Amino acid sequence: MTIRIDKTNTTSYRPPAFKGYDARPLKAVVMSINDEPKSFNIIKQMAQIGEREGFKVFFINQSKNLYTNLDNIKKFFKICIPDFSKWAQDIAVITPSNEVLYCDMIQEDTCFAKKLSTLTNAKPLNYDRTIDGGNLFFTKNDGKNELFVGAEELQKNDIETLKQRYNVSKVIPIPQADFHLDMFIRPLNNKQILVADDRLTIQAINQAIANLHKCKDKTSNFDKIKSNLKTLLKNFKNDVKYGMNPRVEEIAAVLRENDYEPIFVPGRLYYTVPGCSKDDLVHYLNYMNAVVHQKKNGEMVFITNKSKLNEDYGITPEISEKIGFDFEKMFIKSIEPYIKKENIYFIEGTHNQISELLEKGGGGIHCLCNEIPAEISQQIKPSPIL
Fold it and tell me: DSSP label at 182?
C-alpha cells in the first residue's frame, strides 16, 4: 500500500467546533518513534490502516519536516539520527480551543510542539505544568467539552486552572489505576467509556482452562497450554488481589456520577513491581491503550496493541477454534456490541515490536500517536512531493 505525500504546508483558517477526543473522526495522527529499526513497521501498519479508514499518518523528526511518504520515513530507521521522545501522545496536547500545550523543558519537545502547531494552525502555548496526553481525555457531554484527568494530576494542578487552560466546562478526576488513564480506560462515543475489568480477564482465562480440560484432542499440545494458562492465571490473580491501585468499582462510580456509562472489558494483563508504595504495572497485554477513529458512516475503528501471548503459549488459530479462546478473541467479543470485528486492528511491528515497547517501555500504540481531530484540521493541505 503506497502513501504518496511527503511534506506538508498549511493555510490559515478559522477552526470549526471541536467535538472531543472520544471516538471522533481523525484527520491524522502524528508519530515520532525512530529509535529502533523494528519500529518502522509500526508506522507502516498505522499508515496502511489510515489509508483504508480515512486518516493520515505523519512522521516528525528533527529534520524540520513532516513526512508521510513511507520510503522517506524509513531512512530515519537506518542511520543514527537524534530523535524525539517516542511517546508523541505525551509531548503536546491539542485543546478544544485549537491550542497546542507543551512544556519547553526539553528542546526536542518544544520542536515537536511547534511542528504540530504548524500542521494544525494551532497556537503553541508553553506552560511549566502540563499534563501528559496519556493522562487526559477530552469528551463531549450534552454539547459541552469535559476533561477526564488522572486524579494524581491534582497534586500539582487545581481544577479551575485546568478548566481555563484546557477550555473545558468540567474537569473529572479519574481514580488512577495505572501510570496513565490510557492504560485502563478508553472513551468511545455517546458517553460510553471502556474500562479494564481484571475480573473479566480472570473469568475468560478460567473458561479457557475449562474448555481445554473438556477437549479430547491430545494431539494439539493442550496439556502444555493448560499448564501455562494456569500459571499465568495464578500470578495475575495474586497481582490483582494484592494490588494497591484503585479498583474498577471506584472508576465506574466516578463515571456514573458524571453521567457516563462504563463498559467493562477484559483489556489488560500485567505484573507488579515489588517494593513500590503504589503499584507500577508492567503490561504484557494491553488493549485499552488504543487509537479510536470514527468513519464517515459513523462506524468506529479501534486500533490497539497485538500481544505475544497467543504465540508464546502455542494458541494457534486451529486450537483457538477448538477451545473457543485466544487473547484477541477474548477482547473482541467484549467490544463487538459497539465496534464491528472488521474494524478492530492489532498493531505489532516487526517481530511484535509493539509488545516489547509495551512491556519494556511502558507504552503502546496510543502513546505513540498524537491525534489530530478532523474538526480542527480541515484545512491541512499537503504540498507536492519534493
Answer: G
Per-domain boundaries in the chain:
8-382
Rounded Cα gap, residues 203 and 207, in angstroms: 6
305-326 as b/e: b if 16+ CB within 10 A: bbbbbbeebebeeebbeebebb
Give yes or no for a contact between 379 and 121, defined as CB atoms under 8 angstroms apart. yes
> Is the pLDDT assigned to residue 263 strictly greater than 80?
yes
What Rg value do the Cα atoms of the chain yield, rounded? 21
Please report which helix (H) or strand (E) contains residue 234, including its range: helix 222-241
pLDDT at residue 327 is higher than 80: yes
CATH architecture of 8-382: 5-stranded Propeller (3.75)
The CB density around residue 5, as the number of other CB atoms within 10 Å, is: 16
Would you give the end-to-end CA distance of the chain in angstroms? 20
Are residues 145 and 245 in contact, defined by beta-carbon separation less than 8 angstroms?
Answer: no
Residues ≥6 apart with Cβ < 8 Å to 181: 134, 135, 136, 137, 148, 149, 150, 174
Where would I find the beta strands (DSSP E) of the chain? 8-10, 26-31, 56-60, 66-67, 93-94, 99-102, 123-126, 136-141, 144-150, 170-174, 185-187, 192-196, 261-265, 268-272, 281-286, 291-294, 300-305, 344-347, 370-373, 380-382
pLDDT at 12: 34
State the pTM of this model. Answer: 0.91
Q: Which residues pair with 282 in a beta bridge?
A: 271
List the helix and strand counts (H, then E) for the chain.
Answer: 13, 20
Tell me which residue of 90, 265, 246 sits closest to 188, measured CA to CA.
265
Residue 14 confidence (pLDDT): 36
pLDDT digits (tens, 9 = 90+) for 276-299: 666 679 999 999 999 999 999 999
**Nearest C-alpha neighbor of 229 from the set 322, 352, 327:** 327
180 near 135, Cβ under 8 Å? Answer: yes
